[in-house]
């Protein structure tokens, strides 16, 4: 399902089409891991909801680890 996404503003923000959000069951506030692979932008949903159930998980630290920072 190829769709065109337009840069929304000067800060590079974009809006994903509703078809994509529904297909991946994404909602406002959900997090996406953004990577560049072979000159392509790859967006991958990150499920952080289960982290809140685990004690001692620092969400910011875990997200940085996912990013390889």
Please indicate the percent range of residues in DSSP E strands (runs of 2 or more): 15-25%
Oligomer: single chain
Mean pLDDT: 79
Structural class: alpha+beta
Largest sheet: 2 strands, antiparallel
Total strands:
2
Rg from alpha-carbon coordinates: 14 Å
Count every helix, treating DSSP H or I runs of 4 or more residues as helices. Answer: 2
Order of helices and strands: HEEH
Low-confidence stretches: none
Strand order of the largest sheet: 1-2
Describe it for me?
The protein has a domain at 28-67. The longest helix has 9 residues, at 59-67. The chain is 22% helix and 20% strand. A hairpin with a 2-residue loop joins strand 1 (31-37) and strand 2 (40-46). The N and C termini lie far apart (32 Å). The chain has helices at 18-23, 59-67, and strands at 31-37, 40-46. The chain has a two-stranded antiparallel sheet with strand order 1-2. With 69 residues, it is α+β, with helices and mostly antiparallel strands. The mean pLDDT is 79.
Keywords:
69 residues, two-stranded antiparallel ribbon, 2 strands, 22% helix, alpha+beta
């Amino acid at each position: 399902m190829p769709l065109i996404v337009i840069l929304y503003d000067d800060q590079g923000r974009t809006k994903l089409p509703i078809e994509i959000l529904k297909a991946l069951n994404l909602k406002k506030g959900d997090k996406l891991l953004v990577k560049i692979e072979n000159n392509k932008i790859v967006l991958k949903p990150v499920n952080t909801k289960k982290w809140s159930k685990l004690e001692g998980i620092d969400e910011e630290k875990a997200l940085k680890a996912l990013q390889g920072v």
